[in-house]
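Let's practice the habit of predicting before peeking. Look at the sequence and jot down your guess about where helices and strands might fall. Then scroll down.
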Amino acid sequence: MRTQLPRAPLGLDSHPGLLLQRYVSHPADGSERWSAAKREILQAAISAASHAESRQLYQTAFTRWRKSLPELTSSAELKTEGRLIVGLGTENVLETGIRLHHTYGLPTLPGSALKGLTAHYCDQVWGPADKRFKKPSADEDKEYRKYLAGKGPTPDDNYHRLLFGTTDDSGCITFHDAWLTPNSIEPLRLDVITPHHPKWLDGSVAPTDFDSPTPVPFLSVWGRFRVAVSWHGPASNTAKSWTEFALSLLCGALKDWGIGGKTTSGYGRLVEPQRQDVIAHDVSGVPVQKPKLPAFPKSGERIEATLLEEKTRRGGWRARDPGSGLVGHIHNSDQVPANKRSGDAVDLIVASISGDGKQIQFRWPGG
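Done guessing? Here is the structure:
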């Protein structure tokens, strides 16, 4: 049998995550000593998360993280509206878990959880009004794979696939882990769950009005988080607009649905701390207004495009659609008049545009 661990170093400069995971001084046997030991560890973690010297180190790490974000990044600072708990159900000797940064011991929101929440929000809230925001079905994904292999027709536009990708292809948006902002004072707070019918939950005894509640203490989070999304798709003039739009979806999902555990009880909501009409900030912290979707042309539509330099391998002209920023080949480049030069504005017909909005092809009118 394992020997008892040494008593926890309950100084203010201890690591909150290490305290919670490694330094419980009494076995989890349900006794009064166990309850007292658990509360002692929780209180120690709360104090350690607010220690001044540890927070100075975290400030340095937070600044380094912000500077490391790609250039095409949109971010926002959101505050908890009440309490938040992520990782409540993870396996833990204290019965209740919490997600903390492994190195610095402060709360963090996983980027994978933020992406999953936003993708579901896009499908369920935006999808019913516009099918382009619906998650593609398995059959639609198969047709898209055929199109990419050159064996199928051009699929319909699907913004959900563009932003979040599929099981076979990544989307154009990266969702970063959300970091707690250094100005969040006392981010860990003591909370409690009070199950009233524990014996009924395990199926042994029917519930009655005489059952006594069983208080279960746990840690929840209060403070502000910096959320950030970045573009990693092909170069495009619309990349910033898509990134800002993805951030607006994320902010909407966090405000309306929340993240983590106990969201049905009001936990997990994050909102803008000040102006509600400004929903995003660029990587330098400058606020930007609510973005508009890029304007994509339709196949067969006549547009004014910009001629670009000739391709060296395939020959012929390329052109850029100013509305979407997409660049594509002009199929019948031999029809382009000899007096045309790179940078000229010309009328072209959209021959095709991919369903994910990443590729476009043009045709010279009359050819």
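How did you do? Confidence is low (pLDDT under 50) at residues 275-291.
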